[in-house]
């Protein structure tokens, strides 16, 4: 299960994804590099989301996965 702060972080990732999509596109038309630029930006956000969600797995299986910030 995710903590309230993890849910908040994931929500902010979603908000940022929407904002970044608006930055690289213009209403009503697609710019030539929009798809590639959007995909590149979203891949970084997905990496953050996976890191946040990995916390739940680390808490459930502490012998298999480590929590972010843990040196173990």
Q: Which helices and strands, and how do they pair?
A:
Elements: H1 4-24, H2 34-60
**What is the molecular shape?**
elongated
Would you tell me the overall average pLDDT?
86
Query: In angstroms, what separates the terminal alpha carbons?
Result: 21 Å
Task: Give me the number of helical elements.
Answer: 2
Q: What is the radius of gyration? A: 16 Å
Walk me through this protein's architecture.
It is built from 2 helices and no strands. It has 72 residues and is mostly helical. It has a domain at 1-12 and 35-72. The protein is elongated. The two termini are 21 Å apart. The mean pLDDT is 86.
What are the main properties of this structure?
single chain, 72 residues, mainly alpha, 2 helices
Short précis:
This protein is mainly alpha-helical. It has helices spanning 4-24, 34-60.
